[in-house]
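Hi R.,

As promised on Friday, here is the backbone we talked about, encoded as structure tokens. Could you run it through your design pipeline when you get a chance and send me back a sequence?
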């Protein structure tokens, strides 16, 4: 397991913008479809800072039990905010360090098991899902929220809308090489959401359903809504910063230099894009509908 260090797993991707990924009425509909009112014990695997744990738990009845686990010791501990959230709802909460591939629970332990953007980080997601199914009670529900992140590389914002055809293709190629490189590294598939119905079926889960989140995040001047602000802050703070450059370099290395020219051109383009983004934000001319393809896939044991 990972040793504690300054940065936790996915730390750069945590932040308030994560609270804007879904429409509340859509979540209510999903909770109804998943019959969460009948769930008395829920396990959230790969909880991070518990953004998803809190969303899913908000549909449970008083007196329910929620367990959250993460393999990163930095996230596998509670804090005041979490304690307050669960005690206000009269839900028993525990959080533990555990690996999705080796959950420390007996077979048939939980009414529901879930995860969000975790399987994208796991080399063999089918094995993780098999383990999640093992700890699920017969008749219980497994529901996972996992994306296709590649689509985002062809979604236009007010800057990329001006790209020439060749530039759009390169932008996409860059994203595709990164994604394939990450898979080759054994660090997971950033678009694993596409494959979840297949995995659920291979595990012989019943009543398999797949839905798409109906939320698209808008960034519109003067960027003063909570949503616009948190989305834009995230973009400005993280856009192709050093940690992403280092990650990208390793992903490209998986192809033994074959795509080095693509990387060189893309890095230049990224730097230009970043400068334009800053200018456009300052001038309040930047617009985006930050579409993410987020699948919500469920099945029963
Ligand atoms: C992108 S974050 C998602 C966190 C949370 N589910 C959410 O949606 O806000 C991915 C999380 O999965 C955890 N993770 C990665 N591999 C794991 C594994 N094998 N077992 C358990 N947790 C894992 C990471 O430590 C990280 O906290």
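Update: got your reply. Pasting your designed sequence below so it's all in one thread:
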């Amino acid at each position: 397991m990972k040793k504690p260090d300054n940065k936790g797993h996915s730390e750069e991707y945590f932040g308030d913008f994560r609270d804007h990924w879904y429409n509340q009425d859509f979540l209510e509909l999903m909770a109804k479809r998943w019959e969460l009112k009948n769930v008395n014990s829920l396990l959230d695997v790969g909880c991070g800072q518990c953004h998803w744990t809190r969303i899913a738990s908000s549909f449970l009845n008083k007196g329910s039990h929620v367990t959250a686990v993460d393999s990163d010791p930095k996230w596998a501990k509670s804090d005041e905010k979490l304690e307050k959230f669960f005690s206000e709802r009269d839900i028993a909460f525990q959080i533990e360090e555990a690996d999705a591939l080796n959950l420390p629970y007996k077979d048939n332990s939980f009414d529901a098991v879930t995860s969000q953007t975790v399987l994208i980080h796991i080399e063999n997601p089918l094995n993780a899902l098999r383990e999640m199914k093992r700890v699920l009670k017969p008749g219980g529900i497994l529901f996972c929220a996992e994306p296709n992140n590649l689509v985002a590389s062809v979604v236009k914002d007010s800057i990329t809308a001006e790209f020439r055809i060749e530039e759009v293709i390169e932008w996409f190629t860059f994203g595709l090489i990164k994604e394939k490189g990450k898979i080759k590294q054994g660090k997971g598939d950033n678009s694993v959401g596409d494959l979840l119905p297949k995995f659920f079926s291979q595990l012989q889960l019943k009543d398999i359903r797949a839905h798409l989140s109906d939320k698209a995040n808008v960034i519109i001047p003067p960027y003063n809504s909570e949503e616009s602000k948190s989305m834009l802050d995230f973009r400005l703070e993280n856009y192709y910063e050093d940690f992403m450059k280092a990650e990208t370099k390793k992903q490209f290395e998986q192809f033994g230099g074959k795509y080095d020219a693509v990387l060189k051109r893309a890095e230049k383009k990224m730097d230009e894009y970043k400068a334009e983004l800053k200018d456009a934000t300052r001038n309040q001319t930047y617009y985006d509908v930050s579409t993410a393809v987020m699948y919500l896939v469920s099945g029963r044991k």
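One thing I noticed while checking it: The domain at 11-300 is CATH 3.40.50.150 (Rossmann fold).

Thanks again,
M.
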